[in-house]
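Let's inspect one such protein example.
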Amino acid sequence: LERFSKDADILADLVHLREQPSKVGPETALECVRRAIWGMLYADDACIVSRSTRGLGRMMAVFVEVFGAFGLTISESKTETMCMPIPRAPATKIVFNATRQQYRQTTSFTYLGGTVSELPNLSDEIDRRIRAEWVGFKRYKRELYDRPKASLLPLKARMVRSEVVEALLYGCVTWTPLKCHYVKLRTAHHR
């Protein structure tokens, strides 16, 4: 946190949520970095966001160096970079080395169960969620859903809500769907 807060390039390119400050007065650089870093980390996964490739390279160099001091490494094979292009701007290729490590560039990746894509299109994520819905349904199809006993109806309804609908709508609070996406989700739910 201290290394980030003392680096002007990292501070200029750092992406964080702007919340109402809980205290009176301006937020210090260290407080700003602390809020941004805690928003990036989840267990042993991290999603590092920067406004420029230079800032991202500096951030990665700090992470690699600090982790190395504690005997930890960043896996080159599991680490990916992605550029979210500005509309109607030429494509950007991210090329940087963070302390002799190179990371491959991708157009989408899965983070915490949701797909992050460089293009603002939800179709791939919704298709993936529909496939997950069917996996949840088929898991208990023969043992539960195909049995015609009326006494199983409350259990069937609870299982559909907890397994099937949850798989379909996981992460939907972050979506900005179009009408075609609503139609696709409604059709999958009715099936």
About this structure: Residues 53-69 form the longest helix (17 residues). The CA atoms of residues 44 and 74 lie 10 Å apart.
